[in-house]
Amino acid sequence: MSQVAGNPVPHEASHTLAHELSKKKTNRALLASMIGSSIEWFDFFLYGSLAALVFNKLFFLSNDPVVSLLLSYLSFGLSFFIRPLGGIIFSHIGDKIGRKKTLILTLLLMGGATFLIGVLPDYHAIGVWAPILLIMLRLCQGLGIGGEWGGSVLLAVEYANKSNRGFFGSIPQLGVPVGMLLGTVCISLLSGMPDDQFLSWGWRIPFLLSAVLIFIGLWIRKGIDETPAFQEAKKSGNIARVPLFQTLRYHWKAVLITAGAKFAETGPYYIFATFVIAYATGYLGYETSTVLNAVAIANLVTIIMIPCMGKLSDKVGRKPLYIGGTVAMILFAFPYFYLLSLQSAFWLTVATVIAIGIIWAPLEAVMGTMFSEVFSTNIRYTGISVGNQLGAAVFGGTAPMIALALLHAFNDSWVPVAIYIIVAGVISLISLAAIKEHRNAEI
Fold first, then answer.
1. Which residues lie across from 8 on neighbouring strands?
2. Which residues are within 8 A (CB) of 306 and not within 5 positions of it... i.e. 6 or more apart?
3. Is 183 exposed, middle or buried, given 0-12, 13-18 or 19+ CB atoms closer than 10 A?
4. Residues 6+ apart with CB under 8 A from 371
5. Residue 440 in domain
6. Which of 19, 228, 361, 425 has minimal Cβ neighbours within 10 Å of its Cβ?
7. In degrees, to the nearest 5, what angle opens at C-alpha 226 toward C-alphas 224 and 229?
8. Where would I find the Major facilitator superfamily (MFS) profile domain in this sequence (predicted)?
9. Neighbouring residues of 423: CB distance < 8 A, sequence distance ≥ 6
10. CA 327, CA 83: separation in Å to the nearest integer?
11. N- to C-terminal Cα separation, the chain
């Protein structure tokens, strides 16, 4: 017999109660990982969408519109180079004092920067300080995302067991398509406004409203417990003194491998979801709403596919799904741009759904779990954060800018951009050859 609130309770009832409490904690942790991640990516992608629609006109002014757009994309890409620093700073905190507290800090940093972008005066009001302050706030967003990804993945993975780890690890990965979908829908709705009103104040609305989402995310995250894996590591004293030094000394090969594997997931996605907005509207004559709707539909499909792919990875493994998605990405690079060149809204939507919703989804679904299984608990936050953000910095934020530069350099030909996608996939396949499958292993 056991007791609850002073009353004797049969052992079976006590066991059931404990199981239900544990299940509630796990579900809340999963919700916290997904919602917090979705909010932060929503904030992050707002900038990416508006880089081609607003910031090149209000903050990065030039006599040459191509230069303005390149500068705008450069500010988008700069945040990716600061993301590894965010990963280092917050992963150190996460591996030392826990995942929960770190995730609250990243959400506060990201939310504050996003809100301030919404109230920032433009170039016409404060001159050169406008792009400078915008870049500084964008860098703060990069720091926040750099620390967010690893923590949200571990919040899910370290609550799971080996039989459902792939599914659990896929849930925080929903943050990317959910955030992109929310951002795209917001911009699509607002783009229906008269151009002068949209450029004057309409674009600021989603940045300001994100403050409400941040409060919701903070409330959910404050109500969760630390992950069981970290609690066990802390109890046993298995806490790295300086996680970064230990990671770079003993696990540097794993960091480089994860960074290389990241290439196929990150670069192509930003071409399919961000660069395509400028390319399809500016070079192919599509309406902005048509492109945004295609991206929104593709991300909706992805939201359905990611947990399905995560569940499948618990049966067949992470590595086979990631390899399959990468090979498909390589094979679809040329057909994707050919379908866009048909200048048909239908084929644009089909191409975007295939690229993001079908091919990219398995990569995103298993990436967090696969990377987490490579590192031990005491440096796991640092290992996956540094590897992931290093890959994102090299092939992620630079992708729209490089793609635009390739178009400009090769007389508006999309062929070099397709080759760029293929190169990213080949590098990832080489890296994947060095990753072992850990589907049936305890972590």
1. 3
2. 170, 173, 174, 177, 361, 364, 365
3. buried
4. 153, 258, 261, 383, 384, 387, 388
5. no
6. 19
7. 140
8. 29-436
9. none
10. 27
11. 34
CATH of the domain at 85: 1.20.1250.20
Residue 3 inside a domain? The answer is no
Residue in 280, 265, 241, 268 with CA at minimum distance from that of residue 407? 280
User: Could you read off the pLDDT of 13-40 as tens digits, one per residue?
Assistant: 444 544 454 677 788 888 888 887 888 7
Is 32:220 a contact under the CB 8 Å cutoff? yes
Give, to the nearest 10 degrees, the angle between helix 380-395 and helix 361-372: 140
Looking at the structure of the chain, the number of domains it has is 1
**Residue 405 identity:** A
Q: Does residue 297 belong to any structural domain of this protein?
A: yes
Tens of pLDDT, residue by residue over 218-256, are 888 888 888 888 888 888 887 878 888 888 888 899 999
Domain residues for the domain of 331 are 29-432
What per-residue confidence (pLDDT) applies to 423?
95
- The Cα 430–Cα 432 span in angstroms is 6
Query: What is the structure's pLDDT at 15?
Result: 44
- Residue written as token pair 């409330």: 219
Q: Is the pLDDT of residue 127 over 60?
A: yes
